[in-house]
Design goal:
The structure holds 2 protein chains of 2 kinds.
Chain A lengths: L17 H30 L15 H26 L3 H31 L7 H33 L9 H26 L1
Chain B lengths: L14 H6 L4 H31 L12 H6 L5 H11 L5 H5 L7 H37 L7 H20 L22 H4 L3 H30 L12 H32 L15 H35 L6 H14 L15 H13 L1 H15 L8 H24 L1 H7 L3 H31 L5 H27 L19 H31 L65
Helix pairs in contact in B: 2-6, 2-7, 2-19, 6-7, 6-9, 6-10, 6-11, 6-17, 7-9, 9-10, 10-11, 10-12, 11-14, 11-15, 11-17, 12-14, 14-15, 15-17, 15-18, 17-18, 18-19
Classes of the chains: A mainly alpha, B mainly alpha.
Chain lengths: ~200, ~600
Amino acid sequence: MLRDTPDRLPQDVRPMSNARLGILVLLGAEMMLFSGLIGAFLVFRMGNVTWPPPSHIDIQLPRAVTGINTALLLLSGYTMFQALRAIQKDRVKQLRNWLLLTGALGVLFLGVQGSEWAQLIRSGMTLQSGVYGGIFYVLLGCHAVHVIGAVIWLFIVLGMAVSGRFAASRHIGVETCAIYWIFVVALWPILYVLVYLA
Amino acid sequence: MHDNEHASHHHEESFIRKYIFSLDHKTIGKQFLIYGLIMFFVGGGLALMFRWQLAYPERPVPIIGASPQYLEDGEVVTGADKMWERIYESEEEEWLEANMPNGVIEPAFYNMLFTMHATIMVFFVVVPILVGAFGNFLIPLMIGTRDMAFPILNMLSFWLAVLAAIIMAIGFFVPGGHAAAGWTGYAPLSSDPQWTGVEWGQNLWAISLLIQGFSSLVGSINYITTIINMRAPGMTLFRMPLVIWSLFIVAILLLLAFPVLSSALALLIFDRLAGTTFFTATAEGGGDPLLWQHLFWFFGHPEVYILILPGMGIASELVPVFSRKPIFGYRSMVYAMIAIAFLGWIVWGHHMFQSGMQPVLGSAFMTTTMLIAVPSAIKTFNWLGTMFKGSIRFTSPMLHAIAFVSMFVIGGLSGIYMANTPVDIFIHDTYYIVAHIHYVVFGGSLFAIFGGIIFWFPKMYGRYMNDVLNKIHFWLTFVAFNCTFFPMHILGVGGHMRRISNPMQYEFLQGFEGMNIFITMSAFTLGAAQLILVFNFFWSMSRGKVAEKNPWHVNTLEWEAPTPVPHGNFVGQVPTVYRGPYEYSVPGEESDWIPQAQPEHAHATGGD
């Protein structure tokens, strides 16, 4: 009975839709979560005279492989952007292909990370290897959990795309997922530089 | 992800959908309120137990402790005696037997009591009531919309808070007892079980707070989106009531502060369960105990403003209504709140002056801390300016609002005093700090909560609370509150350390025995007075005098809605807003109040 009354601010006054605003607000919290962990990392990094600390001086992080992996993840940010562009132009089939490619790159990133971790653990660097090992696994693990969440979300969106739920006029589901994906992608190079290179 | 443009549905809902897993912001607000009141009694009960110990060390706590006859000759007199008899007869070593023999509080048990008192009061009482209850109930009604932006997330927020409370409650019953490292959980006390002897209690404490963090996160996303996007036509930002401004700012603080605590809690859980050494300095590249303090207080100081800003907002509603005057300096009130929220991020080090932190940093934190006095004073003078020459009505909500302003001034002034690093050397970790925090959080936030409950009760339940009981409750609370917490300033200056279970062990504190007994007696009175409020609350729900639509003659939009407020809040269209929220006693107008939804040049109709 109340459906067609002018309920709230007219659409053109709103800066953006509820869903887009909500996801951007969420990213604010995500940034603070990672700020806390990165802050902890910096405290350990600065607080130790050598990094890695003397007891773990022989640890070699796989910089090159992870560098290539970084490039893969950045590429997935680009493909996600293309997916969004496709649905904005109402090209549903392109949307599916780009989403599939993005998801595949995400899974590939996780796979490479996983195999690198397995190798590091075999070579003796574990969660208990002082703060060096501890913060490595917790900080990057926190990011990995976010990537896993983003991949699951992406495949749900892909499923919805296959069943034809999106169109140029109705693609907020793709957009929120893309915003979150690009956040997770953009965060990684910061972590890579801090943890692997610095 | 889906659009939320649904309007109100008028089909009948089942009991479960209507009262338990409700999506309606008003029901969720009431759920948070009752949740907070229940936890208020848990937290208060813990405080009374350790107050007993401070006044009468090594005497059994009343009611649950053994009777004198039982202690003397083993004669079972009371129900409690029977319980102790059973505990002593059982073969197993019971936890109570070791930590509370005959009802006497042992030091380890004492640590648990004050830790859980503060944890429950901060995370499970004040935030759920101020932000959860008032935020949910008031935001859609006062900005003129039909519900929150994300009703499902709203429900999730409440049920996550319930889950957190259940996990926190389980902690009391696990072997080793509940967390005992203080509500601040300082490492390494919290990060290594060997120091407190607490095993799963501390883990559950951390897990529960992580879940409470998710609840706050979901809630604040909802509040921010709703306030930005869903205001009624004409409701510009600077026509919003100040309580909505305060909740908006608090939502941003919660959103950005809680994840930092979450990161610290995650590291703490890894330290306790996975053998990492983030908060322990070890030879082979260990961590840093001070890191916990930095992370905790980077969250903790904004948290302090999360506890007080909605109280300020509520007072800013009550004071103009019952002075029948516009709020003095509306915009300066908004900017002052924004300034307080901003400064809240750069003062956390004042909790750490004596921690071994770099002394130069201490001076910087001292300066930023003292700066907070400026916006706080702006707000205080604005409240006084609002009351000045007003026709003040000393209703129960107004009494609480005046108590809020005056108690906040005392708490604020002791805060400036403590912020001086040289003074802090002397009074840190004493009862002076305890007095300060209680003047701000009890004298501030809780008086605002009481005032707000009484003020909005007619809109929540369609009835008044009993005014005689409200007045008795107010005066008992006000007097007992000051008798409880004011002497703590004197204890603190006298060197009485906080967090000690038996002051009589120290010769220089023995002279304070009388004062400690006085404080405990006042605390018991204070606790008993709250029973009046809760009785009144539940009794008035069904038996109170039926209230009209706008009993206090208030301008803001929530009073435009019918009472009790139906699903969808407003009948017909949502109201259009034509003016600011505080147009009381406008010269040349017949009525002394002009509702926000009243069009220009139309005469006030007054009444209902």
